[in-house]
Design a protein that fits this description.
The protein is of the alpha/beta class. The protein is built from 16 helices and 10 strands. Strand 9, helix 5 and strand 10 form a beta-alpha-beta unit.
Length: 500
């Protein structure tokens, strides 16, 4: 459940992430499956699956990530830094070998996680996520007093000032497994919220930006969703896949998308987008995501909320549920209450979406403008997909069908190629980036003076031919790559023809 708290400046810290994972013996206990499709799974099994997913996305995005595991002993199997694809098998094998045992040194683990995020005189800066199913019963170095300033037994160090020194910008989310009504049955929500409240009070006293929240989960679905969502900003939506489009529909979509590149006066939103580029072992445009069944980015305006909505998205699920029910005032109130736990881009995006549904067009435009500003602060590797999410909403608000089609195509291609041959994916991302860059040379043919017009036209035609040649090479190389790649290449070729 979400706890009420005074408003704090919300930090934007998705560029440094540390996950703290409980490996005490109680993590061997089972969790139910609410849909009844896969039976009960051990807590540790569900948690490992989520960690594997997070690691894959960290490797794709290049965003620094670290993993701390703890029993009575705290270990750092994945130091904070970039996770490279070639190291994933080794890391995943290592995690598979970690078997739960012993007790839980929760406070010591949080301290170690904070140490990984420590930035010298700038304090502790980053996004810290704790996943645990119990209470601290083994910490040897740190503790949390029942009341601030109360001496701790045995010379333990007060954890609150240690992890939140002056200059810090810290986000701490606690995912508590099970109900804490009885010992060994889950996290004591009251005690944990008391700890988080001490952090909020200290942040307010020192004037620090901070986000501190607790989310209780009782099923495997909830645990997986909350672990992944802790590293998620703006969610991904899916649309009808390319391979299901009739050839005539594909041609219409591509021609419409090309108009968004050719007419910047009518499609100014396109200028805000980042051209997708291949990974090449470095940062990509991927953010941490779960690729949910539910379309979170683009939801239908009517219809009831799915049963698993709040389980999957926590506080954001409450907002979406109210939105789907047409209870816009309640949705806005929940967004306001969730400032401490919702990432700023997500919160402002949904604020604009709800206001637009209310027909409060001016307020929606203001909220979306703030969301654009917050998105520009994100790490470069995470910006492109988030900016597209905002561009899609702005296109809908402006009834800009051409920009909406272009954004949907790029999203669909990038997302659906996630599991494809890396070479094919990188080649298509490169072609998309070059296609978007053609808008620059195209505009020179419209803006050049009379004497320069022919030269500008020749330069643009040469740029189009270069991309066309690269596209034909890709067709030959990936002739048997499947309908997704083939559909994307067809779409790009039609766009190129429109750009001549």
């Amino acid at each position: 459940m979400q706890d009420a708290s005074a408003a704090l400046p919300v930090p934007n810290l998705r560029d440094r992430n540390v996950l703290l994972l409980d490996l005490s013996k109680s993590m061997l206990a089972p969790l139910p499956d609410p849909q009844g499709t896969s039976g009960e799974r051990q807590k540790i099994e569900v948690a490992r699956t989520a960690v594997f997913r997070i690691l894959q996305d960290a490797a794709a995005s290049g965003t620094p990530f670290g993993l701390v595991t703890f029993t009575e002993t705290v270990r750092v199997p994945v130091p904070l830094g970039e996770v490279h694809r070639e190291n994933l098998p080794y890391i995943e094998n290592l995690l598979a070998l970690l078997q739960p045992s012993g007790r839980s040194a929760v406070w010591d683990a949080i301290a170690v996680g904070a140490d990984l995020l420590r930035a010298g005189v700038h304090g502790v800066r980053g996004n810290l996520v704790l996943v645990t199913d119990g209470w601290d019963n083994a910490s040897a170095r740190f503790g949390v007093p029942a009341e601030p300033g109360t001496p701790l037994r045995g010379g333990l160090t007060d954890l609150v000032p240690y992890i939140l020194p002056a200059g810090s910008e810290l986000s701490l989310k606690v995912v508590g497994i099970g109900s804490g009504g009885e010992r060994d049955r889950g996290v004591d929500a009251g005690a944990m919220n008391g700890f988080l409240e001490q952090l909020r009070a200290r942040a307010q006293t020192l004037g620090l930006a901070g986000a501190f929240g607790f989310q209780e989960v009782t099923t495997g679905t909830q645990l997986f969703a909350q672990m992944v969502q802790a590293f998620l900003d703006v969610s991904y939506d899916d649309d009808r896949p390319l391979e299901e489009l009739h050839p005539e529909e594909l041609a219409q979509h591509a021609a419409s998308a090309a108009k968004a590149l050719k007419e910047p006066q009518q499609h100014a939103t396109v200028a805000r987008l980042r051209a997708p580029r291949p990974n090449n072992g470095g940062a990509s445009d991927a953010t941490y995501l779960e690729a949910p069944d539910l379309e979170v980015g683009v939801l239908p305006a009517t219809g009831g909320a799915p049963a698993y909505l709040k389980e999957r998205y926590g506080p954001l699920g409450d907002v979406i549920e109210a939105y789907l029910a047409g209870q816009y005032a309640r949705a806005l109130a929940q967004l306001n209450d969730g400032q401490a736990v919702l990432p700023p881009v997500t919160r402002l995006y949904w604020e604009a979406r709800v206001q637009f549904a209310q027909r409060s067009v001016v307020d929606a435009a203001r909220s979306l403008l703030k969301a654009w500003a917050e998105a520009e602060k994100l790490p470069a590797g995470s910006q492109a997909s988030v900016l597209r999410r905002l561009a899609l909403l702005q296109a809908r608000m402006q009834n800009d069908k051409e920009t909406e089609t272009l954004v949907r195509f790029i999203d669909d291609t990038e997302h659906r190629l996630g599991g494809a041959d890396p070479a094919a994916r990188d080649r298509l991302m490169d072609l998309l980036g070059r296609l978007m860059e053609l808008r620059g040379t195209y505009q020179l043919t419209r803006l050049a003076g009379e004497g320069d017009l022919q030269d500008a036209a020749l330069r643009h035609e040469a740029a189009v031919e270069d991309v066309f040649g690269r596209l034909q090479d890709a067709r030959l190389e990936f002739a048997s790559a499947g309908p997704i790649v083939e559909g994307a290449l067809d779409f790009i070729e039609i766009c190129l023809a429109e750009m001549r």
